[in-house]
Amino acid sequence: MTHKHRDDTIDDAARTWLIRMRGPDAPQLRHELEAWRAADPAHHAAYERAEAILVQSAILKGSVRHGQSRKSRLAPQRPFVRRWLTAGALAAAAAMLFVAISAGGASLSGPHGQNPMAAWAAEPLVTRHGEIRSFRLDDGSVVTLDTDSRLDVALTDNARIVKLARGRARLQIATDVRPFRILAGSGQVTTTQALLDIGYDSEGMIGLTLSDAAAVIAPAGQTTHKSVMREIPAATPLVYRADDAALRLGAQSSDFGDSDWPSGWAEYRTVRLDQLVAAANRYAAVPIIIKDPAIARLEASGRFKISQTDTFVRRLAQLFDLAVERRADGIYLQRR
Fold first, then answer.
1. Residue 243 included in any domain
2. Could you tell me which residues come within 8 angstroms of residue 74 by beta carbon, excluding any fewer than 6 positions away?
């Protein structure tokens, strides 16, 4: 058997499995499918290619906003039995899948580079400047987004994938047999259940802290190669460059070190005033400005409500006996 013929045979089998797993016997076939995928890395890769093509023709539901009531969702729903494809979309997807695999089995490129998942939810999760907000996904996971953040979501029968486009997120990932994949810059985190923070800083770095459970990280686009997967140690803040294809991990800087950020508070043992003000300016409608280098070098410690600008400025003025001058271009802190 030639190499190409073998690949075609495996792709045909993957296509058959994918269609069978959309049928009523899917629960009974799950164990047999997983055994087939585990038997050969080529089987696993072929199934992922086939699934990617199918997903690209699907229309995914938008995620349910945490805390919002929707009358159309009052009816109870059984967990994990929703189907993301209508009958018409599934038929079209199956036809597209057949054509694509018969033409050589190459997966279609998605809207985010190497990522094979193209069918993101129509409505991304987004926060405005100064806003911290929580959302509940349809799988039961809860996402908290920091100010100026965006998370794209794709949930299918076989995978849960999110992409952090900007900002910072805390993900409380619900237990599920489907893997949960988090794309951020040049890295992809994979887990089935975890609590973690991930986010961008102003220097093009991505900070990552796993608080609970287990997860692995690999360069985006190389996630099927076990040799490049690394376990993420719990409670160890890590950082990598968003554009580093080699995904070199390092120690996380203080920019990411605030574990209480979803509450809008920040706590520091010691922090320079200019660094503290920079953190508060991420939420401020107009910037807080310190022009005096001597004031900027002052050090503070304690707990600060950085998401509430007026409260924050008032406390700094009291702590350091500073004058506050409000102008059109900002809030100025200076000596009395």
1. yes
2. none
